[in-house]
Each structure stands twice: as C-alpha cells, then as structure tokens.
Amino acid sequence: MSEILVYVTASDGSRQPCRLDYIAKGQEVALAASLPFAGEQQFIGQNLFDALNKLRLRLEEAGYLLLCNAARRDTYPSRAVRQMGGGFKVYVLHAGQQAKLSDLVDALAPAEAGDVVSVAEQRAAYEQWLRSLG
What predicted TM-score, i.e. pTM, was given to this entire model? Predict the structure, then answer.
C-alpha cells in the first residue's frame, strides 16, 4: 500500500490536507481517502485515474477540488497509460499536438488551484483537445 498527502481546495479558496492510500488489487486500484468533511472513504476503479475520478466526484458534491495533476484541465491519460501503466501518469495536452512521452507527469503530483477543474470540465477539455488534432 502506498500513502501520499494531497490537498483539496474549497470554493472559498481554503486548502485542506487529504491523505490517500492506494493499492493495486489485480486489475483494480483501491483508493482510501481521508476526506476533510467525511472521514475515511473507499473508491475502487479500473486504474488509479478511474478511482481518483470517483473521489473527485465525491469531493465536488461537497464543494471541493483535488489539487493534483490528475485533476488539471490540460491533463488526461491515454488508454495505454490507463491499461498498462495503471493510470498513475497523465499527459499534459497541447492543442493541435499529439501527446508525447515527454508530456507524461505523475498523476498525484501537486497542482495549483487555478489549474484544476471538475471531472466534467476536464473531460470536455480532453474532447476539445481530441478535436484539435483534426
């Protein structure tokens, strides 16, 4: 099991710590999060990115955003990264350009509040990036 401390931001701009523990269980990742408003909760996903999205949706319901690369507007994992890499990395996407290995960053590395968005906003930005490729 791996443990990491990330932060969440509330709509008022305040930041609070959120401890994450995760373990790969066969084809799935189990993610335990110590939420500032709800204590310990579990999220299971097909990979880390999937489990993080479930956590992010729960955070959004309470008015929080997760401050890590996996929640940035301009990042998203490829299918290969999700399947073979377990979703532990995400690509930084640039309009009109294919993602390169040099664009990979750690999904759980810290991100600034101004860079993170909701799950829906991130997905919309990803789809816009796909269209930009022509």
Answer: 0.93
